[in-house]
Amino acid sequence: MTFARNKIFTKTFILMALLLFVFSVAAEAQNKKNPKARSKHYSLGARIGFDNGPSQFLIGGQGEFGRFAGSAVLAPSLDFSLGGDGTAANLDLRWYLLPLPESGLTFYGAAGPTLFFTSGKGGSSTEFGMSLTAGMKIPMRGGNKYNFEARFGIGDIPELRFMFGILFGI
Fold first, then answer.
1. Considering the domain 2-169, what is its CATH architecture?
2. How much of the chain, in percent, has pLDDT values that exceed 90?
3. Which of 36, 39, 71, 100 could form a disulfide with 105 if both were Cys (CB 3.0 to 4.6 A apart)?
C-alpha cells in the first residue's frame, strides 16, 4: 500500500515539474516578444542550511528559471542532509513581492511540491508534501544574488528549514 502511494506521489511530482517547465518555456517565449517584460537571465547556485531535526546540516543546489505573471519565477532546489539520510527535491514558484527602494533588497514568498527521500537501516521511503517559503534576495554585482529563506513543510516532509544561498546569473 505504501509503495503504491509513493509511486502515485512520485508521478504527481514529475507531472507537476513537467507542467511548470512547459509553462516557464512558454512564458519566456512570450517575454521575448516584449523586451520590457523579458527576464534578465537565469540563475544557478548553491545553498547551505539546517532543519529542525537533530544534526540536520544541509547542502544543496538551487536555480531560478522563466518568468510568470511579471514577478514569479520557477525555483527548483535539491537539498542533501549531512546529519541524516534525507534528500529533498523542491519545485517552487517564487513570487518577488516587496522590493525595498534604493537598497535592492526584495522579499519573496514561494510555494510548491516537495519529494523527500530517506534511506537508513530500516529501509528507504519517499514522502510527498508541500513547502511554503518566506525569503529575502540581496543583490550583488554582475547579476548575482544572495538569498535567505525559511521553508515550512506541510505533510510528511521536514517541518522547518533555514537556508542561505548564492545564485549566479547565467
1. Beta Barrel (2.40)
2. 39
3. 100
